Amino acid sequence: xxxxxxxxxxxxxxxxxxxxxxxxxxxxxxxxxxxxxxxxxxxxxxxxxxxxxxxxxxxxxxxxxxxxxxxxxxxxxxxxxxxxxxxxxxxxxxxxxxxxxxxxxxxxxxxxxxxxxxxxxxxxxxxxxxx
Length: 131
Hints:
Layout: H1 2-15, E1 21-24, H2 43-49, E2 55-58, E3 61-64, E4 81-84, E5 90-93, E6 102-105, E7 108-110, E8 121-123, E9 126-128
Parallel strand pairs: 1-2, 2-4, 3-5
Antiparallel strand pairs: 6-7, 8-9
C-alpha cells in the first residue's frame, strides 16, 4: 500500500510541475539548454525536448529545417505551444540554399548537385541521412 501511495504522490507532483519555455535562435546551439540566455539552434531540437504544457519561443530569423514533433499534448490545456517571439518575424522553410548557379543563356541558369544531396539533411543540429 505504501508503494502505491508513493507512486500516486510522485505522479501528482510531476503533473503539477510548471511548464518549461524553450528558446530557439539562429545564433543558438542545439547543445544548449534552451533557456533565453542559451537558446537552441533548431526548432527540431526544441520539439525533441518539449513535453506537454511546454512552450517553444522562436526568435527572429529564417529556419531551414524539417520539423517532425515526436509528441503534441495531452489536452487543450496541456499541449506544446510553438510561437514567434513577441514582435519578431520568423520564417520556416523546407527549401535549401543552392549556390554555384551558372548562366547558360538569357533566363536559363544551371547548377549540378550530387545525388547524395537528396538523402542528407540538417536535422537536430547535425547532418544525417534522415529521410
